[in-house]
Amino acid sequence: MNKVNLEIIGLTYSESSTGAYVLVLGDKNSRRRLPIVIGNAEAESIAVGIEKHKNGRPHTHDLFLRFAHEFGVQIMEVVINRFRDGVYYSMLVCKQGDDLTMVDARPSDAIAIAVRVGCEIYAYESVMEEAGIIMDDMDEPTNDGPEDDNNINKVQNEPDLELLTLNELEDLLQMAIDDEDYQKAAQIRDEIKSRSL
User: Is the pTM of this model over 0.85?
Assistant: First the structure.
């Protein structure tokens, strides 16, 4: 399966969900972005890992890496391999001797580990197609693909709003408002309203 190499673009507090953050990953070779809603503890751990800050005592992700090191396990890469019902799934690709093993992990935990070891972060192309969004030069969604009569105003590669949870919709709504993309915000708002009927 084709993999897309990602980098961390940003980590921002979610105004719409208490204690939640939005981790934005970007395709290194295009303007596609993958927004993932994560918890406060995971956001803090990712930020600490990016800054290479050393704590007095090891946090959970540091402990995991120390454990892996003690048993000769290398973290080779992180792969976001699935997007289902508004939830992302990922795996850690680990190597011990000549054996490769894939370990299921939440993307937030996998990325917190990846920033500590400096390994690559990937997503399957199918995940990018389903959940990714395309940003133009002004950091606003754009539609570079052919127009479809039934979908003229839909952003290319925008996640299917019906598959997202209410919290994820609220986070996307806040992001659309912050980006002044009011057309997208209206679509998200309509989806939220339809669920309260």
Answer: no
